[in-house]
Design a protein that fits this description.
220 residues; 4-stranded parallel β-sheet; globular
Length: 220
């Protein structure tokens, strides 16, 4: 498969690439792409890492897995390409951004503009079968993304981690809260957004923290 990943992440996760679990995962994923319909496109599997180099990360948003309908997944959590209808969770994210910061709601759901500013949009699982949500969970992706979170926690200072929902919150166990800001709330899904996502002010709180660290805020 033709995959792309920024060289800084190749180095940061160097212990993972040659490990037995990842070799087994890579072989299994290649088979899935060969034999069926899997998202995102192979070249976008590591798009989150490729779009946001290790030393450029300022904010981490953790998702559970890629969208599983045709054309949706683009390798960044919660994000879809221009021209694709904005999914309900992302609609709610944009609503909270607008309420919290006054920023206008965008016309498209492509979050590459966030990634270019230092927002790592990382799913816990990086691939999925078409129309089968969560179908690639438990195969090894979680171990790789846990390692990514831990590497950021251990080797960087003053990052913001936005953990929405119980699944994302579990990854918080790898984050040193004495060195980073960790913000948690309900998930932005329509099923839970009114139970604590709306009104969490995570976007303004993240920017306040970044500015206190001497870093430029994110233009949400």
């Amino acid at each position: 498969m033709d995959v792309r990943i920024d060289s800084s992440w190749r180095e940061a996760l160097q212990d993972e690439w040659a490990s037995p679990y990842f070799c087994e995962l890579a072989s299994w994923v290649k088979e899935r792409y060969r034999d069926g319909q899997v998202f995102p496109p192979p070249g976008r599997i590591f798009a989150a890492f490729d779009a946001c180099p290790f030393n450029d990360v300022k904010v981490v948003i953790l998702g559970q897995g890629p969208y599983h309908d045709v054309g949706q997944a683009n390798g960044l959590c919660f994000s879809v390409a221009e021209g694709i209808p904005i999914p309900p969770s992302l609609v709610n994210i944009f609503k909270e951004v607008a309420s919290d910061t006054g920023a206008p709601i965008p016309n498209d759901g492509n979050l590459e503009r966030w990634a270019r500013q230092g927002v790592l949009l990382l799913n816990a699982t990086l691939t999925v079968e078409a129309h089968r949500a969560g179908s690639h969970q438990g195969r090894g992706w979680e171990r790789l993304t846990d390692a990514a979170v831990k590497a950021l926690s251990d080797r960087r200072n003053g990052l913001v981690f936005l953990l929405w929902g119980s699944y994302a919150a579990k990854k918080g166990q790898y984050i040193d809260r004495s060195r980073h800001l960790v913000l948690t709330s309900a998930h932005p899904s329509p099923l839970s957004a009114y139970r604590g996502f709306f009104g969490n002010h995570h976007f303004s709180r993240a920017n306040d923290y970044l500015k206190a660290q001497g870093k430029s805020p994110i233009i949400w």
